[in-house]
């Protein structure tokens, strides 16, 4: 499994890895990249993503050609206004997007997702590795 890098102005690898996330290069596409933990367990890969302020119904997880893409939108907007102007607005809202190249090493149909307390947890069971059997070739 390959983790597609986070987009960050401080990430020098960002210059070289742009080709891995073509959706983020679209004109006008501004996404936040959620922080994630990726665990490679014996029988499954577990991905936990922080999605603060996001509701379960605003999360979309898709799998296409072995690439798992997580998109979410936070619509929470709270402003403190004084005499018609905003004094302070510290909460971020907008779209989140993160992709993971799972390849063919997982059971795609058995991927499970759970969302609780602002954390999305995805469990992707690993496919059983097929052992190569030795086969004798008959010489003619």
Fill in the keyword field for this structure.
mainly beta, four-stranded antiparallel beta sheet, 10 strands, 1 helix, 140 residues, Immunoglobulin-like
CATH topology: Immunoglobulin-like
The coarse silhouette is elongated
Query: Strand arrangement, largest sheet?
Result: 1-8-5-4
Helix/strand structural class:
mainly beta
Q: Could you list the spans in which at least 5 consecutive residues all have pLDDT below 50?
A: 8-13, 15-28
Which quaternary structure do these chains form?
single chain
CATH architecture: Sandwich
The number of distinct helices, counting runs of at least 4 residues, comes to 1
Count of spatially separate domains: 1
Name the average pLDDT. Answer: 77
Helix content: under 10%
- DSSP strand content: 35-45%
Distance between the amino and carboxyl termini? 43 Å
β-strand number = 10
CATH class: Mainly Beta
What series of H and E elements makes up the topology?
A: EHEEEEEEEEE
Describe the largest sheet.
Answer: 4 strands, antiparallel
Rg, rounded, reads: 20 Å
